[in-house]
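We modelled the chain as a single entity of 246 amino acids. Its sequence is:
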Amino acid sequence: MVVLFAMLALAVAIAAAWLAPAALLDTRIAGATGGRLRLADTAGTVWNGRGNLVAKATRIPIAWRVECRPLLRGVLRVRLASGTGAATPHATIEVGADTLALHDVDVTLPAQVFGATLSPFGVESVAGEISLSADDIEWKPGAGRGEVRVLWRAARIAFAGSAASLDLGDVRTRATANGNALSGPVANDGGDLAFRGEWALRAHDSVQLVLHVAPRRPGLADLERTLSAIGTADGSGWRIAWRGPL
């Protein structure tokens, strides 16, 4: 009898979770992004639903579905797709006990969603859109693999104390996962300044960035003062090196 009641209680708990409204995900997403990204206009459940990802004035219709069979192996697999039937965004996300994997990724988000990651450089705001794409990339202790491509289109950035935003053109990086690290080159095309360099993210350790930066045209006094404050003069430009803990 005790076993019967236990099985009944488990069945009720699973049913309650299965029918949980999709709106519950908004709190999790807002918490994970510091409120920069929200989930609105939801329908369905946390297991199979749709809604709009909202970042300031941008709204991205998405749909998602959690696959049941991988749960038996202790793996959460979520398929993301456009909420309107468009070709993008789409991605498959797998989360295990010690593994995070992304497959068939093509996602574009407003740059504002990632703005907080640039705050150590005195960045006040960012604009443009950031696209991420990857075929297969996986992180697990000591055994990361795969590659992710990132393009920041029409990139603009404003530093604290500067009246005008800075045009960076299009910023590109192609990062490779290797062991506990994700790293790659970064450079830009067009804009007010030219930069190139390398960045690296080491799991449970730090994020590092090294850039050589130079204005593309004279007369950018505010920009040169900002670069002098955060970097070291190096030939025709400045060298900027930063390391932050994770």
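As a brief sanity check on the tokenised model: Residues 2-18 form the longest helix (17 residues). Residues 178 and 230 are 30 Å apart (CA to CA).
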